[in-house]
Automatic annotation (TrEMBL):
One annotated Gene Ontology cellular component of this protein: plasma membrane
GO biological process, one term: protein targeting
Keywords for the protein's UniProt record, in alphabetical order: Cell membrane, Cell projection, Cilium, Flagellum, Membrane, Transmembrane, Transmembrane helix
TM annotation in the entry: 12-30, 37-55, 67-91, 124-147, 167-193, 205-232
UniProt keyword Amino-acid biosynthesis, yes or no: no
InterPro entries in alphabetical order: T3SS_IM_R
Assigned protein family: Belongs to the FliR/MopE/SpaR family.
Protein name (Swiss-Prot/TrEMBL): Flagellar biosynthetic protein FliR
Length: 252
């Protein structure tokens, strides 16, 4: 019994797998350190086996050309993954803004699991985003968007860096806008609390109202942050749609 294996199919499978692995390493929620590297490689291999029949076999003329193709696929996967990461970083930025205005940034630290350098709300929001993506099957939409990129960018294609830069610029602008939309109401309340304490100190300096500033702002943050937290599922759904539009916009 002989088993024949097409060299072109195997090389194409490796190219598809490289793009998948590069994307999963960078894009949330798969970039979380809680997901072992072995799981990411196995997931990328499974996706590559499922996608490879849809792509045209590519047989390079030399080893050097094949290495160039591997590097190109890695750049495409990493670029698309970074585009998704920029969109979802709005959640972490919103948490960091709440930490800054609420006084929690004094307890800032680095979380090696999530690769987030922030205080309590920044890490809480980032972890919540990862959990919601898995619980709501949002990760399947992200993977579906990656699979659709093979129709617009077949194996051997090059990613238009100008369009990628334009997409990153617009995604960065959208990230700041989404950050303000998520944390804006609570930030306004904390700002008005600072203004009220300042006026109270101006009227009655002996009260030393700013001594109450930290506990009061912490109380307001803990009391009102739940309102923002309840809106996280709809926020993650909106960000997922935005990330898919960004990926398909670059590859279309």
């Amino acid at each position: 019994m002989t088993l024949s294996l097409s060299l072109g199919a195997l090389e194409s499978l490796m190219l598809v797998g490289v793009r998948m692995v590069a994307f999963l390493v960078v894009a949330p929620p798969f970039s979380h350190r809680g997901i072992p590297a072995t799981v990411k490689v196995m997931l990328a291999t499974g996706l590559a086996l499922a996608v490879s029949p849809r792509v045209e076999n590519l047989v390079p003329d030399s080893t050097g050309e094949y290495v160039v193709l591997l590097v190109g696929e890695a750049i495409i996967g990493a670029g698309l993954g970074f585009l998704v990461a920029v969109v979802f970083s709005a959640v972490q930025s919103a948490g960091a803004l709440i930490d800054l205005m609420g006084g929690f940034s004094l307890a800032q630290g680095f979380d090696p699991m999530t690769q987030v350098n922030g205080a309590q709300f920044a890490r809480l929001y980032q972890l919540t985003a990862v959990v919601i993506l898995f619980a709501s099957n949002g990760y399947q939409m992200v993977i579906g968007g990656l699979v659709r990129t093979f129709d617009a960018l077949p194996l051997g294609s090059t990613l238009d860096l100008a369009r990628l830069g334009e997409a990153l610029t617009s995604s960065l602008t959208g990230m700041f806008l989404a950050t303000l939309q998520i944390a804006g109401p609570l930030v306004v309340v904390l700002f008005l609390a600072d203004v009220g304490l300042g006026l109270l100190t101006r009227v009655a300096p002996a009260l030393n109202a700013f001594a109450l500033g930290f506990p009061l702002k912490i109380l307001l943050t803990l009391s009102l942050a739940s309102l923002t937290y309840l809106a996280m599922p709809r926020i993650i759904e909106s960000l997922t749609g935005t990330s898919l539009e960004s990926m398909l916009g670059v590859t279309s």
